[in-house]
Amino acid sequence: MSLAALEAEVVECRRCPRLVAWREQVAAEKRAAFRDETYWGRPVPGFGDPAARIVLLGLAPAAHGANRTGRMFTGDRSGDFLYAALHRAGLANQPASVARGDGLALRGAWITAAVRCAPPANKPLPAERDACAHWLEREWPLLGGVRVVVALGAFGWEAAVRLLEPGLRPRPRFGHGAEAAAGGVTLLGCFHPSQQNTFTGRLTPAMIDAVLARAIALAGAA
Q1: What CATH number did the domain enclosing 213 receive?
Q2: What is the pLDDT of residues 37-52, one digit of tens each?
Q3: In total, how many domains does the chain have?
């Protein structure tokens, strides 16, 4: 199995009826600003450098971001914030990402999500989370060089623990800058780059820069 073969399977997934209905409804109705665009409207695969030492693990595609563009954290304010930070850290070749095929490339990093379809209100149900974990479990062994997982938000942190070492006790608690050893790698916590966090100053550029610098140091990817 290759990452490309896995991607081909991911984008055809229809396991969760509620998520399928929502992602397709959003793609059909569209946001006014994007009314002339063709939305992706399918599950969104991981993206980045197959030789990555650092994996960034988010929650799920945004309805009018990745669900529109077909690439994680692409085409919305969260992605604007994240890719600018990755560029400052030397993990991306350009500071902005607006569409698939815009020339963006990651260096030493891979971006994925715990849930691959945009969920209503950005809140997957536990059953949907569990059904989608299958993809992350299959993706992980194909990324053989990973040393650090940066969990973007508490949902990503919990997904990472379940993936890396589900029986880990005591259960490491999420927090910005939190660190835990799990499954032979280091798990780092970072507040999610949502507008709710970035617009209020809960997550600043300096804060995410510090997490990425720590990830690079731990991964030996500098």
Answers
A1: 3.40.470.10
A2: 999 999 999 999 999 9
A3: 1
